[in-house]
Amino acid sequence: MPKSTRILIAIGILLVDVVIFFLPLTAIFLMYIIIANPPWFTKFLNEMQ
Length: 49
Fold this sequence. Notes:
The chain is an all-alpha fold. It is built from 2 helices and no strands. It has one domain (3-48).
């Protein structure tokens, strides 16, 4: 198998991994922050001002 094909397969696997695992975890984390409104996040926002 040529090296360019192996690189394309590796990039494809990486993109699938990012789409399947990274985005849903971010969305779940954002939903937790919106729903639960944890004190550490409010403190973080206040310190940014």
